[in-house]
Amino acid sequence: MTPSPVEALSLEGITKRFGALTANDAVSFSLREGEVVALLGENGAGKTTLMNILFGQYAADSGTVRVFGKTLPSGNSRAALDAGVGMVHQHFTLADNLTVQENITLGAEPLFRLRADRAGARQRILDLSEKYHLSVAPDARVGALTVGERQRVEILKALYRDVRILILDEPTAVLTPQEAEDLFTTLRLAIADGLSIIFISHKLHEVMAIADRVVVLRHGKVTGGVNTKETDKAALAALMMGTQTETPKVANASPGAPLLTLTNVTTRNKGSAPGLKDVTLSLKAGQIIGLAGVSGNGQAAIADVVGGTLAPTTGTLDIGGRKQGNWSPRIAVQNGIARIPEDRHKTGTISDFDLTENAILERYTDAEFSKSGWLNWRAARNFASEIIQKYDVRCPGPDTPIRLLSGGNMQKLILGRTLEANPNVILANQPVRGLDIGAVNYVHSQLLAARDRGAAVLLISEDLDEIMTLSDVVHVIYDGQLSPAFTRGQKSPAELGLWMAGQGYESEVRDAS
Q: 86-121, pLDDT tens digit by residue?
């Protein structure tokens, strides 16, 4: 569909400063009715700040936002919502204990209505579900839904509010390939009805598939734009980074002895998240094991076991052939296991600590940083400064509180902290989530280098492309069960997607019988 000439959104001269840092510097771009514009930029480029200004969560220092010709008051989320601006965040904002219908209508109904029109709301949800192919049961509890179903609820919540401009932040980060294609089908239907979309993603093939135009931010400024029909992925990557990027070459591995082995490991369920079910997994020196799966199928449990924060209910865990009894994070660290945790905010960093303190969080008792119970702050700051320089962490310096960093730059510090420890086993849980293409390539090259020097790497990712590119051996986890091992290239993305949806396990049971 050709976008309408009607201007849906105009941002003019948007500037936002945080102290000495200029996050957005006179940013201007527009969006037409029925158009999809992809917003690209490296980590710290100012994308999130700009979207928060558009959505009314931040007030710009200068500049104006106009929606269908109407100027929005700065820093007013209600005005943005009333003007038809909606946003689907990468991390869903749903209440697990409420039903689908309750989540969709929450905040959308007048506060002073004496009686809610539940029947009318239900019918409208069903009508929207049918029109946009968003199958979901209004009475289902959100906590019992799959990740793909939850995203349908988020889209329905926006459509229920009659949004005219929709911001999508990394919308396919936790979806199977089939679910991602279903999402794109829905978006195309909504675009045909005149919905305008700002699409934020680091997956350039998706940008090429859905966007009409691309706008690139670098260091807070608009540095370019292009129609997707007139470019390709390599050119987009160069436009985003300001230079050509090179994907690391993946050579065949030469695996050695097992460094960490789980044998018939079972763990308890944690709320609605399944525990592990008789999982056997061997992490060998010089090998990357990829663990694919839709979020919430046991990845957290296997990461917690490997990282030492969860002891198996049944089964055994051994390191270098030595069976471990009492299992803890301290024992894991002492045995050369380093982790890149999934949630950089909750378990990866302490928000009020500065970069130096966060850089040595798991190593503060090392002789390099501690002597006779006293911390060597000079050594710690030097270590943090080396990480900042080597991993291109965009920040004022090592004394900066880490909460002031963008998510991508926070992730870079965690990566540096982990890889610079030269561990024997690396638990890389979503290691490039939120990183730009240049940082992704760098992280991948570092994981491959760690493999080649003899480390065992467990790569947990919901990005199937990442798993298939880097992993020497791939397992799929579904409902706490582990698939057989597949060597690189043995399964297509579609075949792995079926395993991620649980269908491979069913066929295996049928074949066995």
A: 888 766 788 888 999 999 998 776 645 556 678 888
- Confirm if 348 and 414 have CB atoms less than 8 A apart: yes
Bigger pLDDT: 5 vs 80: 80
Q: Please answer whether residues 367 and 388 qualify as being in contact, where contact means their C-beta atoms are separated by less than 8 angstroms.
A: no
Question: Does residue 248 fall inside a structural domain?
Answer: no
- Write phi, then psi, for 399 (nearest 5 degrees): -95, 5
Beta-bridge partners for 486 = 474
CATH number, domain of 99, equals: 3.40.50.300
Six-digit token pair at 237? 């990557």
Residues in the chain: 513
424 close to 335: Cβ distance less than 8 angstroms = yes
User: How far apart (Å, rounded) are the C-alpha atoms in residues 44 and 490?
Assistant: 37
Of the candidates 241, 269, 290, which is a domain's last residue?
Answer: 241
Owning domain of residue 488: 258-512
Please answer whether residues 505 and 499 qualify as being in contact, where contact means their C-beta atoms are separated by less than 8 angstroms: yes
Residues 100, 439: Cα–Cα separation, whole Å: 37
Same domain, 78 and 196: yes
Domain count, the chain: 2
With respect to residue 156, please indicate whether it lies within any of the assigned structural domains.
Answer: yes
Residue 443 in contact with residue 390, Cβ under 8 Å?
no
Q: Is 350 helix (H, G, I), strand (E, B) or coil?
A: coil
**Single pTM value for the model:** 0.70
Write the burial class of residue 96 (CB in 10 Å: 0-12 exposed, 13-18 middle, 19+ buried): middle
